Model the fold of this input.
Amino acid sequence: MPQDIHDLETELDTLANRYRGAGGVGIQLLNLLGGQAEGLLDRLPPMVRGQLQSGTESALKIAMKAAHGSRGVLGDQPMWLNTAVSTAMGAAGGFGGLPAAMAELPVTTTVLLRAIQGVAVEHGFDPAAENVQFDCIQVFSAAGPLAGDDGADLAFLSARMSLQGAALNTLIARVAPRLAAVLGQKLAAQAVPVMGAVAGAATNYAYTSYYQEIAHVHFGLRKLAIEADRPEADLRRALQERVALP
Done:
């Protein structure tokens, strides 16, 4: 039965607050490390920066298969455990410097994607369905906690393309450049001399927390559209208006 207007407004307010608060922890942690989001990419060697986009696109494709395949072996974990595992991996990657951080990045991407799938399940969606896999990748187009997004862009809530043929690969190719930029910031933070392990743990904590929160907004909106029997596009516009408010 469709929700009444009061309940609908309350749910939209909750989702907007969740979106606005998702990235705050990343900036706070980065500031504690004495850095700034802007200019982090410049710290990376030119060769690494040049390989970021293609590497990120490849990592997303591998991560999607690995995350989905792991579901038959390991059940979904609570948000705190996903965050703890990712944080430990970031510390290990940062401890070994840039080469170790680059090796850790695809594994972390898989953990993030698996955590996003878990949120989808929590909201009643089947991660094996093609449209849900599409949405899981689309969550990554919300960039990351260090991207400086003021919330007005909600790109991850854009209308979904029909899933035919190479549609999922097309989406991955579209998401990869933006994700590469923010993952590059993560790599740069982990490459900080001496403090690499601390930076790796902090950034992985921020990214895992961020993407799980964004996934809750994404799939929460989809579920709300179904329960309220309202077009998702209408609710998306209402959410955008709320997020853009000062």
